[in-house]
Amino acid sequence: MVLEGENLVKIEQMAPWFGREEADAVAEYMRSGAWITEYARTREFEDALANFAKSQRCVVVSNGTVSLFVALLGLGVKPGDEVIVPDLTQIASANSAILAGARPVLADISPDDLSLDLADVKRKLTDKTKAIVLVSLNGRCPRIREYVEFARSNSLRLVEDAAQSLGSQVDGKQLGTFGDVGSFSFSTPKIISTGQGGALVTDDLKLDENFRRIKDFGRIASGVDKHVTLGYNFKFTDLQAVVGIEQMKKLPWRVERKKKMFDLYRESLSRVEQVKFIDTDTKQTPPWAIDIICEKRESLISFLSRNGIGSRTFHPPIHTQMPYALEPQGSFPVSEEVSRKGLWLPSSSFLTDEQILEICKEVKKFYQ
Ligand SMILES: Cc1ncc(COP(=O)(O)O)c(C=O)c1O
């Protein structure tokens, strides 16, 4: 329960969901003479992720921000390069390019699926463009193959920021496995969590080796202090991995639950003309958060809050945020409008159908 202003929020927009299984696994691990730092359990978690994504390799790191940074470094992005990033995403997608010393070049999004607008990407291409960070916002990127083709034909590297997309597929293939590398996040609100955490998946064994070195001081092997490249310490911990292994067992159920939740919200609010849903194929996509595009958003937020229901506004357009606002990059009309009207409704996987219907009833009452 969270206090928002004077109102008691009974249904939060998102809440963590760890259970007895995680608690028991951590207790057992701690009694086993654990080193805690990353070791065998981390490899086990990586294998579980690689198997789930049907990817050749998976490397876990401290969070989904450094995983993007490691992806760009591992692909050879360097100072002087430009990286195209959508204007509407969590800010880490763009910050990772700055971390790598490159210039993030913002492009607008498409109103249909909130993915990068390829026409704007084409306008932003220069001879310095080295890579695209393609964000599958809330698990959607139905036209992923167009971006893969575009990147290939322009000799660009494609980093899929799939932080919000674990469990989302296109033609039965996990998002994050179409580009050169895919990046996931396991921060607490995600479909599964290790508190903090990130992962890189790739089928390129050479890239996998680059990523492993960059996250471990640039060493040739763990514990061998011979440094062949510039590297950092972005390692995971086995303590998180034991939580992640248990969460992975719950992932298939949560994927199906998120799909059903989205269908239920969409169906229940289908006659509310002030509320629109982004086109979503729930056979393939379990939206991580229930997102709507709505009129009178700020009043709706207050109304829901007064009735014990939490919600959260979409990410702000990156070009409006410091330090990006210091260097104007043109106009982003779709990103601005979607950000202004976008709202996340309660989305925790443990919500019951009754709670969802109750939330929808309040939304309907507000617009009546
Ligand atoms: C699209 C996107 N990219 C990157 C990140 C950063 O991940 P982390 O919070 O694990 O650093 C997030 C986190 O929410 C995200 O949603």
Q: What is the overall shape?
A: globular
| CATH fold description of the largest domain | Aspartate Aminotransferase, domain 2
Percentage of residues in DSSP E strands: 15-25%
Helix proportion: 25-40%
Task: Outline the low-pLDDT stretches.
Answer: 1-6
At CATH level 2, the architecture of the largest domain is 3-Layer(aba) Sandwich
Secondary-structure-derived class: alpha/beta
CATH superfamily of the largest domain: Type I PLP-dependent aspartate aminotransferase-like (Major domain)
Question: Total domains, how many?
Answer: 2
Average pLDDT for all residues: 96
Distance between the termini: 28 Å
Q: Largest beta sheet, briefly? A: 7 strands, mixed
Provide the gyration radius in Å.
21 Å
Bound molecules: pyridoxal-5'-phosphate
The number of helices is: 11
Can you write the helix and strand succession as a string? EEHHEHEHEHEHEEEEEHEEHEEHEHEH
Order of strands across the main sheet: 3-11-10-7-6-4-5
